[in-house]
Design goal:
With 620 residues, the protein is mainly α. The protein has helices spanning 9-15, 24-38, 46-64, 87-91, 103-109, 120-143, 166-178, 181-201, 207-224, 241-255, 257-260, 288-291, 295-305, 309-323, 354-366, 376-393, 427-436, 441-446, 452-473, 523-535, 539-555, 581-594, and strands spanning 71-73, 79-81, 149-151, 156-158, 204-206, 270-272, 277-279, 286-287, 334-335, 342-343, 394-396, 403-405, 419-421, 483-486, 509-510, 606-608, 614-616. Bound molecules: 1-deoxymannojirimycin.
Length: 620
């Protein structure tokens, strides 16, 4: 039913191992050895002696003859013999080859696409994640096919994102990466049959959510299904790549109205799809993260469609934000499309602020980083902002000193709040990626590529990833709350722990009753994945597995799907009846990649949009 990722050339050689050449000298010497062990030479019969002489003569002839096959083309294009006497070849030991495996065994036992062997334990765990995805999809297709989201407990669908079948599109590239061909076919044919019509008929959608989930999902499906000839083909199922591209263009043409109807470079927040019109959010302002986190998608669409309009409009936003005043690189979470200015002073890396910082570095990486100096300003803005984060937002909790990122709700002159959304847990991964640009830490160090800032950011990434993991460890369910507060010398509240009294951080992390829900969010496992790829420290895999097991234990719904929770500090937790699209689009994808082969979606060749849809880096 399912198939693993396509085999690399190395795997084909490996599969052919059973035909390997056996050295005649070895065969001969082994026969001699056998004879000598079985018989005493003194008592050897004349017949056997003659056979020995015959063997010896044949072997000598073989040693003297030239190999007709061992020739190569030299630089001038002429054939050159390199074989000479066969002696070297006869004496050369054949390579030690692993036993042959069937494709499925290969996947279970973890034969890697880059030729190395993966620990079978992680291959089996990766398989469990694949099964979880299959279970999540089975609930969705049974009860909610074509709706945005599944309500797994009431077994029905709900349109919370404008009615474009968001789960189908969000899940599609995860199924491709996992090699789940049946799901790719099902989701792909739904997209081909229904999505264009939905886009032309539906009403209001949010520019950001539709871009990152639906447009991002279509673009990644286009690439992974072989849209850019010769670069990638993870599936032969589902529609042709051009179908995804055409739907993406139709959708983006309508979304463009958010940019073109605004009096400034800052787009409106909402789009009426069937009218191709746009309007501001009820309060007037757009979220900073929302207007600054559509550029990866629009840039890639311009690259593959050959039409620059998408990129031009989207990049105007970042160029405009560059000109605005900031606080040590940090920005308020609201911005006005009417005036183009920031609104209020609330600074945070949680909701409405988060992916602004993520896209600064990722858009720079996408555009070929150092190769393209037009975008150096994005790297500069990112480095300045991370300096600002370290200076103004990073603190240590007491008594055990967890490093966390707080908020400045009234700007840098106002009081510091030790509040950290789970959403902030994207930051460790982004910091690590920004430091090594997707290389491993070892490689980046060896090539002397890490600046002082990079090293500082990498250290912060590792410290914050620990805190994000402890936000899970500290609760009774092993799942993180939506928001945590940290005990500091200026802030404490007794009795509001997560319910896991044996956690050594039970007194450092405060979880308020209103913040105890879990929406199956991906940010922590996303960071564990990136940090594992970059540092190769297996603790990140162990932590990811622990989180996955907690999801399995408390959020799995027997009849199909996984559900959000109301309170992670209680066992059993009260369930919330919603499977968010990002559980399939992000959480399970990152877990699958965390336990798998590093050569699948390499971090120096792809950037993940903020909904985990991988898009290729330019010029690679
Ligand atoms: C996703 O839709 C995206 O990751 C977004 O940037 C923030 N929140 C959710 C997942 O938590």
């Amino acid at each position: 039913m399912s198939k693993s990722l396509p085999y690399s050339v190395k795997d084909i050689h490996y599969d052919n191992a059973k035909f390997r050449h056996r050295s005649p000298l070895k065969v001969f010497s082994q026969s001699l050895l056998t004879l000598s062990t079985k018989h005493n030479y003194a008592s050897c019969s004349t017949g056997k002696f003659l056979i020995l002489i015959l063997f010896f003569g044949v072997a000598c002839l073989m040693l003297m003859s030239k190999s007709p096959n061992e020739s190569v083309l030299n630089e001038k294009g002429k054939v050159t013999f390199v074989g000479g006497l066969r002696l070297g070849r006869l004496l050369r030991k054949p390579p030690r080859l692993p036993p042959r495996l069937s494709p499925d065994e290969g996947q279970l036992r973890g034969s890697s696409t880059n030729g190395s062997t993966i620990d079978p334990k992680w291959a089996a765990r990766q398989q469990s994640v694949k099964e979880a995805f299959d279970h999540a999809w089975s609930g969705y297709r049974k009860y909610a096919m074509g709706y945005d989201e599944l309500m797994p407990i009431s077994q029905k669908g709900v349109d919370g994102l404008g009615g474009l079948g968001a789960t189908v599109v969000d899940a599609l590239d995860t199924a491709m990466i996992m090699g789940l061909d049946n799901i790719v076919s099902e989701a792909g044919s739904w997209v081909e049959t229904h999505l264009l019509e939905r886009i032309s008929q539906k009403g209001q959608v949010n520019l950001f959510e539709t871009t990152i989930r639906v447009l991002g999902g279509l673009l990644s499906a286009y690439h992974l299904s072989g849209g850019e000839q010769g670069t990638m083909n993870m599936t032969h199922n589902g529609p042709k790549p051009v179908i995804y591209l055409n739907i993406a263009k139709d959708l983006a043409d309508r979304l463009l109205s958010a940019f073109t109807s605004s009096p400034t470079p800052v787009p409106f927040c909402d789009v009426i799809l069937h009218e191709s019109t746009a309007h501001p959010a009820p309060g007037g302002a757009s979220s900073t993260a929302e207007v600054a986190s559509v550029q990866l998608e629009f840039n890639y669409l311009s690259a593959i469609s050959g039409d620059p309009k998408y990129s031009t409009e989207a990049m105007k936003v970042l160029a405009h934000i560059k000109t605005l005043p900031k606080t040590e690189g940090l920005v308020p979470i609201y911005i006005s499309p009417q005036t183009g200015d920031f609104v209020g002073e609330n600074i945070r890396l949680g909701s409405r602020g988060d992916s602004y910082y993520e896209y600064l570095i990722k858009v720079w990486l996408q555009q070929g980083a150092k190769l393209n100096s037009n975008f150096t300003y994005l790297h500069d803005m990112y480095i300045e902002a991370m300096k600002g984060v370290r200076h103004l937002l990073v603190r240590n909790s007491i008594p055990k000193g967890l490093v966390f990122v707080g908020e400045l709700p009234y700007g840098s002159k106002g009081e510091f709040s030790p509040k950290m959304d789970h959403l902030v847990c994207f930051l460790p991964g982004t910091l690590a990626l920004g430091a090594t640009k997707g290389l491993t830490k070892e490689q980046a160090l060896k090539e002397n590529l890490l600046s002082f800032e990079d090293l500082e950011n990498l250290k912060l990434a590792e410290d914050l990833a620990k805190t994000c993991f402890e936000m899970y460890e500290v609760t009774a369910t092993g799942l993180a709350p939506e928001i945590a507060y940290f005990h500091t010398k200026d802030y404490s509240e007794d009795g509001l722990d997560g319910g896991n009294k044996s956690s050594m951080y039970a007194n450092d992390i405060i979880i308020k009753p209103a913040d105890r829900h879990n929406l199956l969010r991906p940010e922590t496992v996303e960071s564990l994945f990136v940090l594992y790829r970059i540092t190769k420290d297996t603790k990140y895999r162990d932590q990811g597995w622990q989180i996955f097991e907690a999801f399995e234990k408390y959020t799995k719904v027997k009849s199909g799907g996984y559900t959000s929770l109301d309170d992670v500090t209680e066992v059993p937790p009260h369930r919330r009846d919603k499977m968010e699209t990002f559980f399939l689009g992000e959480t399970l994808k990152y877990l699958y990649l965390l336990f798998g082969d590093d050569s699948v979606i390499p971090l120096d060749k792809f950037v993940f949009n903020t909904e985990a849809h991988p898009l290729p880096i330019r010029n690679t």
